[in-house]
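User: These chains co-purify. Model them together.
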Amino acid sequence: MSIKALAQQLNISIGTVSRALNGRADVNPETRKRVLAAAEAMGYVANQSGRSLRQGTTNVIGFTIETNVETKTQGDTFFMSVFDGVQTVFARHKLDLVVLPCASEDDPFDHVRRVVSRQFADGLILSATQRTDPRIDFLIERGIPFVTLGRSLSGGEHSWIDMDFEGIAARSVARLVAGGHRRIALANTERGINLSYIFEESYRAALASHGIAYDPDIVIRGEITELGGYRVCDRLLALPEPPTAVVLVNENLAIGFYRRLLDAGLTPGRDMAIIGLRQSPQARFLSPALTCYRLSLHDVGVELAQSLLATMPAYKDQYPLGVVQKIWPMELVPGESDPPLGAG
Amino acid sequence: MSIKALAQQLNISIGTVSRALNGRADVNPETRKRVLAAAEAMGYVANQSGRSLRQGTTNVIGFTIETNVETKTQGDTFFMSVFDGVQTVFARHKLDLVVLPCASEDDPFDHVRRVVSRQFADGLILSATQRTDPRIDFLIERGIPFVTLGRSLSGGEHSWIDMDFEGIAARSVARLVAGGHRRIALANTERGINLSYIFEESYRAALASHGIAYDPDIVIRGEITELGGYRVCDRLLALPEPPTAVVLVNENLAIGFYRRLLDAGLTPGRDMAIIGLRQSPQARFLSPALTCYRLSLHDVGVELAQSLLATMPAYKDQYPLGVVQKIWPMELVPGESDPPLGAG
DNA sequence: GATGTCATCGTAAACGTTTACGGCCTTGTT
DNA sequence: AACAAGGCCGTAAACGTTTACGATGACATC
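Assistant: Joint model of the four components:
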């Protein structure tokens, strides 16, 4: 079903058919109606390769994720919510979102380089942002429009959206200190991912602001999975002087963490105060209820999409946002997992 | 960086350059080496649009998912694991996997139709298969190679891979009956998705084979989320004669189900025997340990990819599998959530 | 030396679009 | 009546590939 067949059917030149379909001004309204009707009837849709080749544009936005389940930064439900928000924006512009999973055996940098050189997409959304991320420098050098989900030291002035990790660290520590806790552990993610540094620095700053000394023994980095949470708790309990409270960089950790406490005959909250990160379906039914923070991932997706469009020449007049660097605010959801020391 | 620029650089015709890059036989080994070196040096990669236009092939495989987090979630790492398996196969053939999320506002059929008409991919993997699924008929009619994750009544002879839901239903019921249970509930997913029918029919057949009457009051369909599990338990407990055991169509249900029991002062396992579906990281730390079934999602992904290649003309000689219709075997992982009636 | 074979390479068409350009016809203006 | 303006449309080039076809030259065979 090429445009040629459609044109022959209508006895019109393919040039006119193309103009009619693309809403150009110099075509008789009558003719346009005929063309649109015939296209609809014959189920004609412009071939994307032909169009891309001619205009150098694909009408596709790529969203990279990493599928390494062991070291994953976020899971299916996190990203699906974000995708959903992203699509509500792109749908209005006839842009298609495609997710580009980077396999666990694959290198994220090579992955992006392949995506770019094959000219898959007009713009890119990057996740799992590293502290120094060669993908960012590469995209800037190539002039590819992009936004990252998560900050980075690389690249200087590019758009990103991130969660308010420093706010969370500060508020969590303050809340625990207010509850009488002085020995507050940190369950962090592995180095590499930038949030690991941000979260830990904010935690240290918060401790310092309350006059509490930093103790590296109770800062533990590992996989942010349920099993990872179990292991973190394991290590903390094995210390000569275990902490009385812990701040988690990810709520999935809480699931294993709770279990490890219970296995030791301890009660989450009473015997160890816990503050998680994001309110999520998985952590929702923990008991005692996990104190954590809420945000709308759908809205994050919307903002990601808009920020990306703001960097694309064809859309920046519709989205005059400039460079967006936004720390997403998160709302405290108090639970019963972090009572004052000695309570209960 | 077009092939023309590369050819000029080398003082060779673009035809020869193309043949050299594509490993054709009729090119001097010496020349080929020069071309490959120059391509590497200049960072040349063939433009995908040009190539697709010429050969009518995209070297892309699409994997459709639905992003409605409210009504259905597989485990939090379900799709990531599958993607990872799929990629290990496609990487060997220089095929790129792209995930095509269908937004919650969008219709899955329209979504597939758009994907096809824009000629995004050479082949498709479908998930969330409906009992009668118009997408399947459409793809067959258009002659697009595809595989589905999940069976369907539509389409007749196409390739699919599915989990062994009838085996699980049968074994779960048998196991519970052996434990003395006679009033066994079913927590099922909503109608539409084919597995809802398969699981329920198998459950009914299993009951019948043990001489147990079917009671529609204890078959509950709803969202397969943590919250959905809570609600299912809520309804079961409100019955005049609650069941003594329940079989879950999805392990996420178990998380809310446990919580509802505990909120009622009941003990999962002792007061209500529970058998979940798949062993997953989220359900791993439930206590008592959830009896469930294990499979390798990575391997499912591998098989999906191979089955798809087997239907694609360009690869079917390398994967002479014919039409694959495979019910994936799952291994019982006994827990403590389904003790014999009256035990404990 | 004529002929055939083979390796290697260049030429040009084709894929399906979009769009700059020019041409025709109608309409309006003087 | 002559001319200008503008609406509408056809023509053809261009995007970056791949590939069928033919050309060239080297070499061997008789």
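Residues 12-16, 19, 25-28, 31, 50, 52-56 of chain A lie near DNA strand D (CB under 10 Å from a C1').
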